[in-house]
Design goal:
Bound molecules: adenosine-5'-diphosphate, magnesium ion
Distance between the termini: 18 Å
Order of helices and strands: EEEEHEHHHEEEHHHHHEEHE
Largest sheet: 7 strands, mixed
Structural class: alpha+beta
Length: about 350
């Protein structure tokens, strides 16, 4: 008998790199994701296959360890290991992963694979962890097996999302709130298709800078400071560290404002915050790249586009755009044509409704 589980990708609407700073994020689950299908195997055998990469891996549950850096099956084995660390009993299994997400585009195909794996394993070897613990196990898998010290944004987003709603996450208390999205606007993702080298290294370096800033300010995390306070402390921090911290405080403040704008339906104001977020990525966090800047600047000039910013870690990947519902088709055509004209490749444009989380 075969079992399957599914988890969507996610897009970060606002709150860039705030998750590992105990901060605030708004996200949604996109209408594409990863399906994991398989069945139990005897003798602790594990057989993995990625349909997308046409790659396989075989081994034993008794001798699990991380494969080489960048190995795709690390994401699966990491989840196995982290579930077992949480006293989950697992036996052997075979699984195949198949995704409708672009992989490595900032839509978190990694968290989708982790979450779908955890949910699949729960079907064949039922266990009792609550969803937040499952999210934490998936995050830990990404830390220990994939070498990316990500926050919990991706895993919470793909496991907790609700259809037609944005997900607000407080990454300190792990309070999750679902905020209804109106029907007058849509979020449109534009995947640049570029992935700049050293992304994991840049990511971990940004995280270290944020931790250093908090330490120098005598705070537990950057969550505990504000832009005003940071401005007063400017001469106490090295310039680079100050800039990194300035991005995080601005992002936390923008998320807090955006929650209010969502509640009152002020989507123009929400969009303005998205543009400000991207400007801050460029000026303070330096996690953008020419292709993403081009997409955001182009979006700014298209009628009906209320906001645009890079979404996710940065250094390539995707932008997220807030577009009036009646302008989505022209927006998609115009931005694809402009990018094609400039870079000679057609970006994936995905007008997504907010989807439900993994199951
Ligand atoms: P993102 O999460 O934004 O898509 P990451 O670099 O964090 O980008 O994760 C992408 C990596 O996750 C891939 O390089 C691969 O190792 C793994 N991965 C994700 N989805 C799949 C899949 N369907 N099959 C195999 N590996 C996958
Ligand atoms: Mg990822």
């Amino acid at each position: 008998m075969s079992f399957s589980a599914y988890a969507p990708g996610r897009a970060e609407l606002l709150g860039n790199h705030t998750d590992y700073n105990d901060g605030l994020v708004l996200s949604l689950a996109v209408n594409r994701g990863t399906t994991v299908t398989g069945s139990p195997l005897p003798d602790n055998r594990i057989a993995l296959r990625s349909r997308d990469l046409s790659e396989t891996w075989e081994g034993s549950l008794k001798a699990i360890q991380p494969g080489p850096a960048e190995a795709w099956y690390n994401y699966v084995l990491g989840v196995v290991e982290e579930l077992r660390r949480r006293q989950v009993f697992l036996g052997g299994f075979e699984l195949e992963a198949a995704s409708t997400l672009p992989i490595g585009a900032g839509l978190s195909s990694s968290a989708a694979l982790e979450a779908a794996t955890a949910l699949f394993l729960k079907k064949i070897y039922p266990y009792e962890l609550d969803p937040l613990e499952i999210a934490k196990a998936c995050q830990a898998a990404e830390h220990t097996y994939a070498g990316v010290k990500c926050g919990l944004l991706d895993q919470i987003s793909v496991l907790f999302a609700k259809a037609d709603h944005a997900t607000f996450i407080d990454c300190r208390s792990f309070e999750v709130r679902h905020l209804p999205l109106g029907t007058d606007t849509r979020f449109v993702i534009v995947n640049s298709g570029v992935k700049h080298a050293l992304v994991a290294g840049e990511y971990n370096e940004r995280r270290a800078s944020c931790e250093q800033a908090a330490h120098l300010l005598g705070k537990k995390a950057l969550r505990d400071t504000t832009t005003a306070e940071l401005n007063d402390a400017r001469d106490r921090l090295p310039e680079l560290i100050w800039k990194r911290a300035r991005h995080i405080t601005g992002e936390n403040e923008r998320v807090a404002q955006a929650v209010g704008f969502l509640a009152t339906g002020h989507m123009d104001a929400f969009g303005k915050l998205m543009f400000e977020s991207h400007d801050s990525s460029v000026r303070h966090f330096e996690n953008s790249c020419p292709e993403l800047d081009f997409l955001v600047e182009t979006a700014r000039g298209i009628t009906g586009c209320l906001g645009a910013r890079l979404s996710g870690g940065g250094f390539g990947g995707a932008t997220i755009n807030l577009v009036r519902a009646d302008a989505v088709e022209t927006f998609a055509a115009d931005i694809a044509a402009a990018y094609q004209n400039r870079y000679g490749s057609t970006p994936l444009v995905l007008a997504t409704e907010a989807a439900a989380g993994g199951a």
